[in-house]
Amino acid sequence: MSPVLAISQLSKTYGSGFQALKSVDLSINRGEVFALLGPNGAGKTTLIGIVCGIVTATSGTVTVDGHDHVHDYRKARAKIGLVPQELTVDAFITVWDAVSFSRGLFGKTPDPAYLERMLRSLTLWDRKDSKIVTLSGGMKRRVLIAKALAHEPEILFLDEPTAGVDVELRRDMWAVMAQLKQSGVTIILTTHYIDEAEEMADRVGVINKGEIVLVENKSELMSKLGRKELTLQLVEPLAAIPTALGAHRLALSDSRTQLIYTYDSDSAPAGITALFDDLAAAGVRFSDVSTSERSLEEIFVSLVHDGDAARQRETA
């Protein structure tokens, strides 16, 4: 199946000489939730702006469901809905007027039944006649999503959709995204909340300094790069790790009452069995065992750090 969004050799250099994107290649599959992660200034917003027709690329191509975003602009743009990070809405019109106007901008015929279903799914129907100025921040963000969906796009860009909202509203927004995915909408999500990517995404892309560092299925990324730890609560403190345990990746806690064993998924069963055998042989006893897994946030930070370090070595 061909990707619903194909980005090839996309670059952007601003008039100041700053290169925001450097030959970006990226394919998004139909119906997936793709999380694009990156620090501030990494190029996320520039990339979205180019795909959505807000920013002009210096070079490269973007194809939206088979339509070139320059030569077949209208058809390409009609496939896309954009929810910007900023709450940019006309404060003194009603919710209904806002979504109706957005639908009309794309030449869509009026469809009150569709707009009603959409507003109900976003918990906005009871506020359809309210002026946007009277809504809470969370409700205004829902209105932005409704405006982006008004013309029935197949691809939805969510640029920091839960920025500035409380935890409860974030959970509500996650539920909305799950509903959209279930309806067949492809979602590209940028976020600073790593748990949001862990919760929602099928695949994760990391961008740093205008370059795509990695694109990977979330589960495979966690499996390959997600370090796991086994913590052994010792019956008696150790002055040092016994020499007989040197073959294992062990660390002794500052309190000297815990041994921490680092492992990966592939080597877990054999490695843990061998460790327990060697602990018994060395006379090291433990009273409790707990496990923890490296988070996506830790993986993201290490990828960005390693990429920066590699660039520094190249320029040294």
What key phrases describe this protein's structure?
Alpha-Beta Plaits, alpha/beta, 36% helix, four-stranded antiparallel sheet, Rossmann fold, 316 residues
Summarize the structure.
With 316 residues, the protein is an alpha/beta fold. 36% of the residues lie in helices and 26% in strands.
Secondary-structure blueprint of this entry?
Elements: E1 5-13, E2 19-28, E3 33-37, H1 44-51, E4 59-64, E5 67-68, H2 73-78, E6 80-83, H3 95-105, H4 112-121, H5 137-149, E7 155-159, H6 167-182, E8 186-190, H7 194-200, E9 203-208, E10 211-217, H8 218-225, E11 228-234, E12 250-252, E13 258-263, H9 268-281, E14 286-293, H10 296-315
The end-to-end distance, rounded to whole angstroms, is 43 Å
Strand order across the largest sheet: 6-7-8-3-9-10
**CATH H-level superfamily of the largest domain:** P-loop containing nucleotide triphosphate hydrolases
Question: What does the radius of gyration come to?
Answer: 25 Å
Strand content: 25-35%
Oligomer: single chain
User: In the CATH hierarchy, what is the class of the largest domain?
Assistant: Alpha Beta
Any guess at the CATH architecture of the largest domain?
A: 3-Layer(aba) Sandwich
Helicity level:
25-40%
Uncertain runs with pLDDT below 50, 5 residues or more? none
Quantity of strands, as a count: 14
Structural shape: elongated
Give the overall pLDDT as a whole number. 84
> What string gives the helices and strands in order?
EEEHEEHEHHHEHEHEEHEEEHEH
Which structural class is indicated by helix and strand composition? Answer: alpha/beta
Please summarize the sheet with the most strands. Answer: 6 strands, mixed
CATH topology of the largest domain: Rossmann fold
